[in-house]
Amino acid sequence: MADQNLQKAHGSVEIDDKCTIIVQRLKSMLNPEALTPATSMMAVIEVTRMLLCERSMSAQKVLQNTKLFPECLNLMKTGDATVCQKLVDVICEMAKNR
Questions:
Q1: What pLDDT is recorded for position 3?
Q2: DSSP string, 24-42
Q3: pTM for this one?
Q4: Could you give the number of structural domains in the chain?
Q5: CA neighbours within 13 Å on the CB side: how many for 3?
Q6: Type and span of the H or E element at 98
Q7: Which of 50, 60, 69, 79 could lock onto 75 through a cystine, CB 3.0 to 4.6 A?
Q8: pLDDT single digits (tens) 31-64
């Protein structure tokens, strides 16, 4: 039983590490100073929208703990018109689906 608990704990650490790496990569794509193409920024916004729309508690927890959605909202200040329009579309769609 102790071995099973250790394996579960080790597995959750691996998942947490992978989530951290993924979120860091997504956040780097959102950084306007990194000269990331607008399509990458829109892809991150779309991933965030899918996580927010899912009824998955783990996805909600990832977004809440990593503050990825507020990072997307920060693009309103610095993103180009295409990125801002995509973000507005996503927010409107989320509001409609609630």
A1: 44
A2: HHHHHHH-GGGT--HHHHH
A3: 0.66
A4: 1
A5: 0
A6: none
A7: 79
A8: 777 767 888 888 888 888 877 776 677 777 777 8
